[in-house]
What we know:
eight-stranded mixed sheet; Aspartate Aminotransferase, domain 2; single chain; Arc Repressor Mutant, subunit A
Amino acid sequence: MRGSAGLVPWLDLDQHDDVPLYLQLYEQVRRAVLSGRLGPGARLPSSRTLAGELGLSRATVIQAYDRLWSEGYLEAKVGSGTRVTATLPEERLAAPASARRAPEHRAAVRLSRRAEALVPTLAGAGQLDVPRPFLPGYPAIDLFPIAIWRRLAWRRLRSRNQVDLLRPPEPAGHPGLRSAIAEHLRLTRGVRCTAEQVVITTGTQQALARLSALLLDPGDAAWIEDPGYLGARRALGAAGARLVPVPVDGAGIDVDAGIAREPRARLAYVSPSHQFPTGATMSLERRLRLLQWSRDQDAWILEDDYDGEYRYEERPLQALQGMDGSGRVIYMGTFGKILFPSLRLGYAVLPASLVSAFVAARAADDGSPPLLEQLVLTDFLRGEHLARHLRRMRLVYRDRRDALLEALAQRCGSSLTPGPAGAGIHLAATLHRGDDRVIAKLAAGRGLTAFALSEFALEPRAPGGLVLGFAGWSPARLRNAVDLLAAVLAGSR
C-alpha cells in the first residue's frame, strides 16, 4: 500500500518498503528542495496536517522534519510555520569568490607509512544511512528478537548489583560471556577451547589488527586469499607484512600455489567455511594440507569464520581450529553478522600462551567492549535465544537466497552466472561480459550496492563479477532489485 498527500501530491511513500517511513519522507522532501520543486521560503504543511494526510503517526513526520531542520534545509519560525530555508547548506559550504581568488595556503598532509597502507583499501568504505540491496554481510535486522534483548537488558539494569555495570570491564572480557562463547563454539563449530582461551573483541577487525601486530615483523610474508577480505588486507598491510596473494577456486585457497609462491610465510589468513567474497568452502584435502604446511613451517593460521553458521544443504562443517592438533590456528568470529551490525562484539580463540600478550596489546589500544552489552549477550546465549534465532534465520535466508537465484536466472541468466550459494548470506556471480567496476558504479546509480569482485583482488582477474548479499531484504525486495540490476546489465552491453 502506498500513501501520497493531497496537499503535497508528489510525495509517494511505500509502507511495505524496508526503508523506514521517516527516511523516505526526509529523502523525498530533500530532493524536492534540491531540485527546486520547493523553492526558498516555500511553506510545508504542519507535522499534524501532513501526518493526517499521509496516514502516518505525527512522530514519524516530526522525525523527518527534525532531520531536515538539523541539516539546514528547513527552518521553523513562530507564526510562519515550517519553510524551506533561504540558503541551502550546499550554498553555505561553497567558498566565496574572494576566497577562491586568494586561496589560503595550507601545509601538505604527510601520512605515516602505516596510514599509507590503509588508505587505498579504505576508499569507499563508508556505509549509507539505509543499506541498499545487495550489501554483503547485512543481516535481517527487522527479524531480530529485539523484545527479548530489551527484556534481558532491563533485567540487568534492574539487578541489585547495578553499580557493577559502572566498573571497568575485565581486559579479556566478562568471564561469563567467555564461558558461554566457548560452550557455543564447542557445540556448534567443533572448536576445541576453554573459556580462558576466549578473548572478547569489538569484532573480527580488531582481532585481525592486534594479531597482525603481535605475530608479524615488518617484511614478514603473509598469505592472503585472492580475491579476499579487504579488512584482512588492511590489518596485515598496516603491520608491515609482505602480502602474498594466493588464488582461490571452488575448493577454497590453493595451498600448493601458496607454497610455490612463498613456502616460508609467517602467517596465512583464510575463511574456510564460506570464503569472502567467492562463497567457496575449503575442501577437506586442502584443510589437511594447510594444517600440515603450518606445522612444517611453524606458521600461524588466522581462521575467520565468516557467516559459517549458515549452511542450507548440509550440516555446518567443523572449524579448521577443531582439526588442528598443534595450536597454530587462531579462530575469530563476530556477532554483528548474525545478530545486528551495531553490536560491536566479537571474539578470538587463542592458544593459552598468546592470551596475555593479546590482552595487553588490546588494553593499550581501546580496552574491552562495554560491559552491559557483554552481560546481555551472555544471557542471550545462555537462554538459548541465539540457537533459536540461528535456526529461524537459516530458513529465512534460504528462502531469500532461493528468491535471488530464481530472479537472477529469469532476468539475468544471459549476463551472469551465480557461484556457490550453499552457505552464507551472500553469493558472487561471474559476469559473462563487461567491466565489473563500471557495472557496479552503474548499479549504485540505480540504488543498489553490488560490489565488483575485482575490487577484492590483488592480482588482475578475469572474468569479473558482482558480490550480492541477500540476507537483509525480503524476497519481493530482492526480485525488484534484480529487475534494476537486469536493466543495468542490459544497458552496459
